[in-house]
Amino acid sequence: MTSHSLDVYGKGTAVWFPDVKEGWTSAQLVSKDVSGDNVKLTFLTDDGKDVVIGTTLTKLSKTNNAELPPLRNPPMLESADDLTSLSYLNEPAVLHTIRTRYLQRNIYTYSGIVLIATNPFQSVSLYTQDIIQAYSGKRRGELEPHVFAIAEDAYRAMLRDEQNQTIVVSGESGAGKTASAKFIMRYFASVDDKDRSQDVKKSNATTSGMSEVEEQIMATNPIMESFGNAKTTRNDNSSRFGKYLEIQFDKNQNIIGARIRTYLLERSRLVYQPETERNYHIFYQLCAGAPPSEKKNLELGDFTQFHYLKQGGSGTIPGVDDAAEFETTQKALSVIGITIQTQWQIFKLCAALLHIGNIEITESRNTAMVSETDQALVTATKLLGIKTADFRKWLVKKQIVTKSEKIVKDLNAQQANVVRDSVAKYIYANLFDWLVNVINESLSNEEVAKNVSSFIGVLDIYGFEHFKKNSFEQFCINYANEKLQQQFNQHVFKLEQEEYVREKINWTFIEFSDNQPCIELIEGKIGILSLLDEESRFPAGTDSSWCNKLYQHFDNPTHKKYFQKPRFGNSSFIISHYAHDVEYEVENFLEKNKDTVPDEHLALLKNTDFEFLDDILTKGSAIAAPAAKPDAKRSSVIAKKPTLGSIFKASLISLMETINSTNVHYIRCIKPNEVKVAWKFEPQMVLSQLRACGVLETIRISCAGYPSRWTFDEFVQRYYMLVRSKHWGPDTKKLCSVILDDSIKDPDKYQVGITKIFFRSGMLAYLERLRLDRLNECVTLMQKNMLRHMHQKRYQALKASTIKIQALYRRRVAMSELKRLREEKAAITIQKNWRRYIQRKQYLRAKKAIHKLQTVVRGVIARQKFEVLCRNAASTKIQSVYRGWVARRDYKMTLKRIIYIQSCLRRRLARAELKALKVEARSASHYKEVSYKLENKVIELTQNLEQKSQENKTLETKTLALESQIKSWIERYEKLESDSNNFKSSTKQNSSN
Ligand SMILES: Nc1ncnc2c1ncn2[C@@H]1O[C@H](COP(=O)(O)OP(=O)(O)OP(=O)(O)O)[C@@H](O)[C@H]1O
C-alpha cells in the first residue's frame, strides 16, 4: 500500500476507517487545518460520526503518512471487475469492491491473474451449456469474470504455448473449491471447441454429449466425494483431502484420460467425528442403501448401530437421500470400470471397519480387555478374513522388540482403543488410496499415457486454517498453503517482471517478503517436520519432548520472525504464517504423524484370507509412500512406515515440482458467511480470508510496482479531454505523452511501455479527478452554450411568431378593407341602380303627369264640349256617353292610384329588402353571398322596372287608344255639335219659313 501526499486529502476526499462490524466504514474529509507544522483533519463517517486526526507535518513525513486513513476510489471504479484496475489498492477498497459486486449478484471478480469466487450459497444460473459455449474461444476480460474464463484461458494457453497448465483452487472449507473444480471439469468435458476440427470433435460422444472418458472423469466426483467427503459444521459436503486432477489431452486436444493425486486424507474422521459432524458419506450410504440380503450378510443396520457413525449425533444431511446417493456411487464405480463384485468387496471392507469400531474394550486393573464373544470382533474379523483370536490378542497387548528379546506387554483401555482405531484408519486410508489407484489405472492406462500430449491440472486444496485449537492437520494444511503462496508470489512477480521487460520500462526488482524462511522452518533439514519425525522414531518420544526441542532450536532471535513460544504454557508453539499467526497445540502430533499400526496387526492383515484386503494393502501402501526416503540407520519396522509428515512433505514437493513445470492460474474461493446463507456478506470474515488467501498481500506487493496499467487506446479514450483538442490525433502514443506530460508532474508516477502505460498506485484516481474537473468545466461551458442556444431559439421562435401574427393581422386588415371596398362597390351599384330606378320612376311619374295633364286638358275640353252639348241640350246619348267616359275615367284614375300605391308599396318593400341585404352583406362571412344576392335583387328590381315600363307602355297604348277614342268622341261630338248646329239652323229656317 503506498502512502499519499497530504495534498490528496482535499475537502470532500473519501476515505476509509476501520470498523469493528463492517471491517471498514466510509468517511469524507470535512475540514483540513494546516497551521505551521500542525495538521488537523476532520472526517465525517457515513454513520454520522466525526473523526479527528491531529498530527504534525514532521510526523507525517517520518511515518510516510501512515496515520492518514486509506483513500476511497472514485465511484466508477468501485465495482470494477478487476481489482487491479482500482486506483487505490488498499484493503477497504478490495473488500468494498468484492462486496459491491457480490451484492449485485456478481460472484466472480478478478484480482490480476487471480479469480476471486465468492460463494453464493444458492444455485445460480451461471453454468448452463449456453454459458459454457459463450466462454469458448473468448479471451479473459472479454466477458464477465467467470470460472469458465479461467478454464478457457488455461485451455488456450495449453494450445498456444504447448505447455501444461494448472488451475489452483483454494479457499477455506465451504468456500466453494470443489464446486469450482467441478465446474472446470464440466467445462472441459462439455465445451464444444469451435477451433477443433469437426472430425476429431467428440468422436465417441455418448448420449450426454460427452465422450466415454469425459463421462468417466465426471464419475470420479461422486466416488471421491463418497469416500473422501463428510458433513462438517462448515460444509455439508466437505472434502477431507486435497486433490490434484490432471485432465489429459492428446495432440488433437481431445480429452483422453485423467489422473488424480490426493493429499492428506483426514484419517481421524473415520474413528471420531465432532458434534453435528459425520463420518465419510459412504458409510451412511451403505447403511441406508444396501439391499436387505447384503445388509444381512454384512450384518449392517441403521447407522445409529455403529460407534464410528453416531458420535457426531448427525446421521442425516438435510436434502440428501443417502440411499439414492449410494446408487449414484455404485453407478459411478461401474462407469469407472469397477465390477459389481469388486464394489461389494469394497462395501464389505467398509462394513468390517464399522464393526471394528464397535469392538468393546473394557479395562480391568489398568489392563484392556476384549470379550472373546464380542459380536463386533467376530463379525469384523470374519469380514476381514483374519484370525479373531490373534486380532483380539494384539488389540490389548503390544510387543516390544529389543536386540535380545521380544517382550509382550498389556495395554490399557485407552491404548487398546488407539490400536483398534489405528487399524481401522490404516485400512480405510489404504482403501482410499487403492480407489484412487484404480481410478487412475482406468482413466490413464499405459496406452493413454503414451498419447498424452498435454494436461490441465486442477488443484482443489484446503485453504489456510486457523482455529482456536490447531493440531497436526492444520499444521500440514498451512504448510501446504505456505508452499502454494510462495509459488504464487514467485509466479506473480515473474509475470510482473516479464511484463516490465516485455514493455521495456525501467524497473528495479520489487522487494517482497518471501516466506521461504517460514517454509525452511517447517521443512528444512533441522526443521519442525524433521524434528517431529525424529521424535516419532524415538520409542520414548512424546509430544512435549518434541515441543521442548522446538523451543530449543527455534525460540531464539534468528527464528523470532516466524517462530514463537507462547507466553503461557509449554504445550504449544506459534508460527507466523504469511496469512496469520497460528498457535499449534502439540498434543497428539506424534501419534498423528506416526499413524502407526502395530507390526503384529500389519502382519495379521497381510495374512488375510480376504484377497481384496490384501490387494488394497499392497496397492494402497504403494501409493501412500511414494517418495519416502527411509533413513537406513533407523529400525527396519519404522523405516517401512514413513511418517505422515514425511509423506505429506514428499507429496507436496512433488506437487510443487509439477505446478512449477506448468503455467498456473489461480482461483481463490471466499466463504462470505459462516451460516451458509445465500447472499449474506460478513465483511470481517471475508477480510480474514482475503488475508489468508494472499490476495491482500499480493495487492500490497504489486502496489510497490506499477499496479495499474492501461493500453494507449484505453487511456486516450478515457482521458483525451485533459488536453486541448488541437492535440487530438490518430497517434495515440503521442497523445498519451501529451496527456501525461500535462497532467502528471512527477515522472516517477508512471512509465510508458511499448503498448501500455504503467501507473503507480493512486494515479488513476488522480487522473479520474482531473477528468471529473475537466468534465465539470465542460459541463459549465456546455450549460452556458446550451442556455444561449435555448434563449436564441426562444427569441427566434418569438420573432417568427410575431412576424406571423403581424402578417395575419395585416391580412385581416386587408381583408376587412377588401370587404369594405367590396361593400362600397356593391352600394355604388345599388345606388346606381337605385338612381336609375328613381329616374325611371320620375320619368314614369312625369309621363303620368303629362298624361294626367293631357287627360285633364282633354277633360276640360271634353267638359267644355260636354257643357256646350249640355248647354246645347245635347242628346241623352251624348250625356250618357259622357257619363260613361267619366265613369271610365274614374275607374282608370282609381286603377292608376292603385297601381301607384302598389308601386309605392313595392318600393318600400324593395327598400326594406335592400336594407336587410345591406345588413347581411355587412357580415364578413356572408359578404360575397349577400353581394350576389344584392346583385340578384338589383337584377330582379331591374326586371321589375322593365316589367313596369312594359306595363306603362301597355298603359300608354291604352291611353293612346283612349285618347284616340276621346278624339273620335270629340270628333263625333263636334260632328254632333255641327249636326246640332245644322239642326238648329234648319230648325230656325223652318221656323222662319
Ligand atoms: N458457484 C456456486 N454456485 C452455487 N453454490 C455454490 C457455488 N460454490 C459453492 N457453492 C455451495 O457451497 C457449498 C460448499 O462448496 P464446496 O463443497 O465446493 O466447498 P469447498 O471449498 O470445497 O469446501 P471443503 O474444503 O470443505 O471441501 C456447496 O455445496 C454449494 O452448495
Automatic annotation (TrEMBL):
<dbReference type="InterPro" id="IPR001609">
    <property type="entry name" value="Myosin_head_motor_dom-like"/>
</dbReference>
<protein>
    <submittedName>
        <fullName>Myosin 2</fullName>
    </submittedName>
</protein>
<keyword id="KW-0518">Myosin</keyword>
<dbReference type="GO" id="GO:0005524">
    <property type="term" value="F:ATP binding"/>
</dbReference>
<keyword id="KW-0547">Nucleotide-binding</keyword>
<dbReference type="InterPro" id="IPR036103">
    <property type="entry name" value="MYSc_Myo5"/>
</dbReference>
<keyword id="KW-0175">Coiled coil</keyword>
<dbReference type="InterPro" id="IPR027417">
    <property type="entry name" value="P-loop_NTPase"/>
</dbReference>
<dbReference type="InterPro" id="IPR036961">
    <property type="entry name" value="Kinesin_motor_dom_sf"/>
</dbReference>
<dbReference type="GO" id="GO:0005737">
    <property type="term" value="C:cytoplasm"/>
</dbReference>
<keyword id="KW-0067">ATP-binding</keyword>
<dbReference type="InterPro" id="IPR000048">
    <property type="entry name" value="IQ_motif_EF-hand-BS"/>
</dbReference>
<keyword id="KW-0505">Motor protein</keyword>
<keyword id="KW-0009">Actin-binding</keyword>
<dbReference type="GO" id="GO:0051015">
    <property type="term" value="F:actin filament binding"/>
</dbReference>
<dbReference type="Pfam" id="PF00612">
    <property type="entry name" value="IQ"/>
</dbReference>
<dbReference type="GO" id="GO:0016020">
    <property type="term" value="C:membrane"/>
</dbReference>
<feature type="coiled-coil region">
    <location>
        <begin position="931"/>
        <end position="979"/>
    </location>
</feature>
<dbReference type="GO" id="GO:0007015">
    <property type="term" value="P:actin filament organization"/>
</dbReference>
<dbReference type="GO" id="GO:0000146">
    <property type="term" value="F:microfilament motor activity"/>
</dbReference>
<dbReference type="GO" id="GO:0016459">
    <property type="term" value="C:myosin complex"/>
</dbReference>
<feature type="domain" description="Myosin motor">
    <location>
        <begin position="78"/>
        <end position="772"/>
    </location>
</feature>
<comment type="similarity">
    <text>Belongs to the TRAFAC class myosin-kinesin ATPase superfamily. Myosin family.</text>
</comment>
<feature type="binding site">
    <location>
        <begin position="171"/>
        <end position="178"/>
    </location>
    <ligand>
        <name>ATP</name>
    </ligand>
</feature>
<feature type="region of interest" description="Actin-binding">
    <location>
        <begin position="652"/>
        <end position="674"/>
    </location>
</feature>
<dbReference type="Pfam" id="PF00063">
    <property type="entry name" value="Myosin_head"/>
</dbReference>
